[in-house]
Design brief:
This protein is mostly helical. The chain has one domain. It is about 60% helix and about 0% strand. The longest helix is centred in the middle third of the chain and has 34 residues.
Length: about 250
């Protein structure tokens, strides 16, 4: 692969700079895979482990001086309101195919169970899920997809340093690379909505040119999906009049 660890970039930096972006993302994927393999009694614990792994890794790399782009976030109140509105609209986009086309819905095993630790702990379980889904995931995933993959695609064939590429710089190859990588990071039944979601958020990124804006859009989409799952149990019904559970979204 291009860009060896000992290579000095034109900006005078040592190394290729990949690890702060790759490691939290891969760490999360490994935690998800581990959660599928642990004994049933350990499943509730894994709902705490899955967000904890990327958080610990993000903090580790942050303390070592990584993520300069996070120090350049400049969200304004007006811009943040726009980002929140876009995030809610994209949550509706994410849900629509599964509401309208029953055959696209996954089986019940894909649904999140807020009662997995018992009724007494539902608030805690939902709070942890909200923290991981609407805060942790948007941070490490946007760092990986929009800050790393989008820029790395620009320099891969030239052995360049992705850190020399400005954020939110459009090219067809980086646009397509983010779509492919984001999509394959989701389960196949989500691909119907993952592709338009990441394509539209790429366009929003080119407009806003602020990684914080994308994190807010992403977090809002995820928080809205969880809110719809929790509060919207009777909002949509199937042809027989039975309510459609929305917990598979989270």
């Amino acid at each position: 692969m291009p860009g060896g660890a000992s290579q000095r970039t034109t900006a005078g930096r040592e190394g290729h700079g990949w690890w702060p972006y790759l490691v939290p993302y891969i760490g999360f994927l490994l935690a998800v895979e581990l959660a599928r393999r642990v004994p049933e009694a350990a499943v509730p614990l894994m709902h705490f482990v899955k967000p904890a792994v990327p958080v610990a890794l993000l903090v580790y790399f942050w303390r070592r001086g990584a993520y300069a782009e996070l120090r350049r976030i400049r969200l304004t109140a007006g811009g943040a309101l726009l980002d929140i509105g876009v995030g809610i609209a994209l949550a509706l986009l994410w849900m629509a195919p599964y509401i309208l086309l029953p055959d696209l819905r996954p089986d019940a095993s894909e649904a999140f169970d807020a009662t997995l630790m018992g009724e007494r702990w539902v608030a805690l379980v939902l709070g942890v899920r909200l923290f991981g889904y609407a805060i942790v995931t948007p941070i490490f995933e946007e760092l990986f997809i929009r800050s790393f993959v989008m820029r790395f695609a620009e320099v891969y064939w030239q052995n360049g340093d992705f850190r020399d590429v400005p954020l939110a710089q459009y090219s067809l190859k980086s646009f397509l690379a983010t779509i492919v990588v984001f999509t394959i990071g989701h389960v196949p039944w989500e691909w119907w909505v993952a592709i338009p979601w990441v394509a539209l958020t790429n366009l929003w990124f080119y407009y806003r040119r602020d990684l914080g804006a994308l994190m807010l859009v992403h977090g809002t989409t995820n928080a809205a999906l969880l809110a719809f799952a929790f509060f919207g149990g009777g909002l949509f019904t199937d042809p027989g009049g039975a309510p459609i559970s929305l917990w598979f979204f989270v």
